Amino acid sequence: MTSTSTVTTGERITTARIEADPSIPAIRMTRDFAATPEQLFRAHTDQDLFARWVGPDGMDMQITDWDARTGGSWAYTAGSGEDSYGFHGCFHEVRNDRIVQTFTFDGEPDGVALETLTFEDLGDGRTRLHALSLCDSFEGRDAWLRSGMEVGVNEGYAKLDSLLADGAV
Amino acid sequence: MTDQLSAVFAALADPTRRDLVARLAAGDSTVGELAAPYDVSVQAVSKHLQVLERAGLVSKGRDAQRRPVHLEAEVFDLMTKWIERYQRQAEERYQRLDAVLADMQDDTQHDRQRQQPEEGTAS
Fold first, then answer.
1. Three-state DSSP state, B95
2. CA atoms within 13 Å, Cβ hemisphere of A119
3. Is residue A145 part of a domain?
4. What are phi and psi for residue A75, nearest 5 degrees?
5. Geometric angle at alpha carbon A87, from A66 and A48, rounded to 5°
6. What is the pLDDT along chain B (123 residues), one digit of tens a residue?
7. Is residue A10 part of a domain?
8. Domain interval for residue A29
9. How far apart are CA A138 and CA A141, in angstroms?
10. Within its chain, how far is the Cα of A97 from the centroid?
C-alpha cells in the first residue's frame, strides 16, 4: 500500500455545504471529516456512537430500534414528553462505502424520504460525506427545510413577522 | 402570520407555479408571455399567478398596458434564511460527529498500545 496518492489538492469542505435542488425535491449535503471511511461508517451504524451525535444539541435522544444491516430498520425519538419527535425508517442497503435508508417523521407518517449516504475516501485520512435526501414532494422537502426554523420557532417567525410588518411580503 | 407562510409553501408546491417563478426570476413578464410555452389557457396561467400573488410571491406592475408580473425577491431571501438555518443545524450535528470520530481515533491508538506487548499470542 505505498501508492503515491494522486489526491488532487482540492478544496476541503470543512463546514457543511447544503444545496436544495431547484428541479427535484432533494437536499444535498457535503462535509469532510478527519477520519477514515471505515470510522465514518461505524459512526453511522454503531448504535451508541450514532446516538452521541445525531440529536439536536441539548435534546434527549432515545434509539428505540436499531438494526443497521441491509433490510434492517431504525427508529428514534428526540426530546421528551410533549416536545418529543419520533422518526423511523428502513436500511435499504448498508455497505462500507454507502448507506441507503428511508426516513419518515412520525408526525407525517405518509411522507418518506430516501437518503443515500456515500463515504468518499480522500486518501489522506480524510473522508468526504455525501448525503442526498430525496423527498417525495417539493412540499415535503420545503417543510423539511422549514423545520429547521421551527426548532427555534420564535427567532424565525420574528423575522417573518417583521418582514410582513414592513410590507415586504 | 403563519398562514402567510403556509400560503407561500402551498403556492410553491405546484410544479407549474414553480416554473412560473423560475421564469420570473429572469425578469418581469406579461401574463401572455408567461402562458406562451404552456399547453393551457392564459386564464389558467392567470389563476396560478393569482395564487402566487396572494402568497406575496409576485406582484403586478402599474403599467396599465402590459401589467408585467414581478417576482418579489424578499420572499426568496426568507427561503435562503431557512436553508442557512438548516445548514447551521447540520453543521452543529457534524461537529458532534467530529468529536465522536476524534474519540474513536484515541480509542484505536490506546487499543494498539495495549495490544502491542501481547503480539503473537493467540486470542
1. helix
2. 24
3. yes
4. -160, 140
5. 35
6. 455 666 777 787 788 888 888 888 778 899 988 998 888 888 999 999 999 998 888 998 776 667 889 988 777 676 677 778 888 888 989 999 999 999 998 877 776 666 555 444 444
7. no
8. 17-165
9. 5
10. 16
- How far apart CA A148 and CA A85 sit, in angstroms, is 13
Grid cell of B7 as nine digits: 400560503
Helix ranges, chain B (H): 2-12, 15-24, 31-35, 42-54, 73-115
> What CATH number is associated with residue A146?
3.30.530.20
Q: What CA–CA distance (Å, rounded) separates A131 from A116?
A: 6
- Cα–Cα distance, A128 to B53 (Å, whole number): 42
Report the distance separating Cα B52 and Cα B18, nearest Å. 10
Residue A140 cell numbers, joined: 415535503
Is residue A125 in some structural domain? yes
pTM of the full structure: 0.65
Does this complex have an ipTM over 0.85? Answer: no
- Residue A142 belongs to some domain of the structure: yes
Partner residue facing A35 (CB), from B1, B75, B101: B101
The CA distance from A100 to A118, in Å, is 9
A52–B89 C-beta distance less than 8 A: no
Contact residues, chain A to chain B, C-beta under 8 Å: 15-18, 20, 22, 27, 29, 31, 33-35, 39-40, 42-43, 49, 52-54, 56-57, 129, 137-139, 142-143, 145-146, 148-149, 151-152, 156-157, 159-161, 163-164, 168-169
Grid cell of A147 as nine digits: 423545520
Cell numbers 409576485 label which residue? B58
Question: What three-state secondary structure class fits A37?
Answer: helix
- Which helix H or strand E contains A73, and what residues bound it? strand A73-78
Residues of B whose CB is below 8 A from A52: 96, 100
Sequence-distant (6+) residues with CB within 8 A of A70 are A91, A92, A93, A94, A95
Structural domains in chain A (count): 1
